[in-house]
Design goal:
The protein is α/β, with parallel strands linked by helices. It contains 15 helices and 13 strands. The chain has two domains: 134 residues, Beta-Lactamase; 248 residues, 3-Layer(aba) Sandwich (Rossmann fold), CATH 3.40.50. The longest helix is centred in the N-terminal third of the chain and has 15 residues. The radius of gyration is 23 Å and the shape is globular.
Length: 400
């Protein structure tokens, strides 16, 4: 069935419904920013983007809509930057840095709107300019049930110790999935003990989520500590039960996370990879060749679960999280530890097909259920796996 005409009609209808920001001023001042953000949130925007020489855009269900008649100029952007970051924003951008932070609007004493902010220097019309992207954050983390997370992931979300990784491309909902998992841990009857999170920036807060046996402390990188690796080292001095590291992006952070998992802690983190097997390859590759074997075996001994998530458009509007995952139980870990690390990526892909859930399997189920269209299904199925699985020890695999 050709759904392109239906999709176009839906987008046009949405554009008419959204219209333009009714309170658009002649000049964006600092006071106008909060008004714009409140209006964008009411339109169910997931992201709001300000860019020099362009109108303000909001993204709804994965589609961008311009919502001002006038393009922003450098004076508008200076006012917005001053409100979000301060007077030295341009100096920081000129030094070659992008800026990550969180921002909060309080329409009244009982309501607060939170945003994750990225500020990046760009070129517009041949001169240095700025793009500001604000991700709208829900006031409460969702639950794993709200996200439709598979029961096997839920059942294996909280091992006694070790490493749990959530992976995916930028904007795939990794932080949301992690926050939902943390909420489950906080709310369970036995609680989570002391949970320490290190995030850049803090996206979800747990102030309104309580448990008699749970204590959550959140630190922002680099506001409170300089790096994620410094956060893990800090955590080990505070006797936590659970450590959440916003991103395992470098050798130092990965090493610290592995050591925390080896010493009896439960560690959660994210990785910018697509696929369980690709995550194993990425984690191994961060180490120098001289230490790769030792560190890789330590990593595999601590691995407990890898979940890859992507967000795709749903038939009828909205977006859906689809997941690939593999539980690294003792038998799977032992099987991989018996193999040379050069084969782990291939072996993991075969294990995933037999004992986990591949993205292709998830996409097939969603397509058969009428939740995603054929084009989305084919894109996911084509991109799934990506690893050759021939020349694998099938007899040893069958013994698991």
């Amino acid at each position: 069935m050709d759904t392109s005409h239906t999709v176009n009609v839906d987008i046009n209808e949405m554009a008419v419904r959204i219209g333009t920001w009714p309170a658009e001023p002649l000049r964006m001042s600092e006071e106008d920013l909060d008004s714009m953000l409140q209006w964008g949130a009411l339109q169910r925007a997931s992201d709001i983007t300000f860019q020099t020489d362009r109108p303000i855009y909001i993204e709804v269900d994965g589609t961008l809509f311009p919502v001002t008649r006038r393009s922003l100029d450098s004076a508008d952007m200076a006012n917005i930057l001053g409100k979000l970051y301060g007077a030295d924003a341009m100096a920081k951008l000129a030094s070659g840095r992008d800026l990550d932070l969180s921002y909060e609007v309080r329409p009244d004493r009982n309501t607060r709107l939170r945003f994750r902010v990225n500020i990046t220097a760009v070129i517009s019309r041949g001169r240095d300019s700025v793009q500001i992207t604000l991700r709208v954050l829900p006031s409460l983390p969702p639950t794993l049930k709200d996200l439709g997370v598979e029961q096997k992931i839920i059942d294996n979300w909280a091992p006694r110790q070790g490493l749990v990784l959530v992976t995916g491309p930028t904007g795939s909902g990794k932080s949301t999935l992690l926050a939902a998992g943390c909420r489950m841990l906080v709310e369970r009857e036995e609680g989570c003990g002391k949970m320490l999170t290190y995030e850049a920036p803090i996206e979800y807060v747990y102030d309104a989520i309580t448990g008699p046996h749970s204590l959550v402390a959140q630190s922002e990188i680099p506001r409170h500590l300089p790096t994620f690796a410094a956060g893990v080292r800090n955590a080990l001095r505070r006797k936590p039960n659970i450590i959440l590291v916003g991103e395992a992006r470098d050798r130092e952070t990965v090493t610290a996370a592995i050591e925390a998992g080896q010493t009896g802690h439960l560690v959660y983190s994210t990785v910018h990879t697509i696929g369980v097997a690709a995550t194993v390859r990425r984690m191994v590759s961060v180490f120098d060749p001289s230490e790769r074997t030792e560190r890789a075996y330590a990593m595999m001994e601590t691995m407990r679960l890898i979940v890859t998530q992507v967000l795709v458009p749903k038939v009828g509007g909205g977006r859906l999280g689809l997941r690939e995952f593999l539980v690294f139980d003792e038998k799977i870990r032992e099987y991989l530890l018996e193999k040379p690390i050069e084969r782990w990526t291939l072996e993991t892909q075969r294990l995933l097909q037999k004992y986990g859930q591949t993205m292709e399997q998830t996409a097939t189920n969603a397509y058969k259920g009428g939740v995603i269209d054929r084009r989305t299904y084919l894109l996911l199925a084509k991109g799934a796996g990506g690893e050759e699985t021939d020349d694998i020890d099938d007899d040893a695999l069958d013994e698991i």
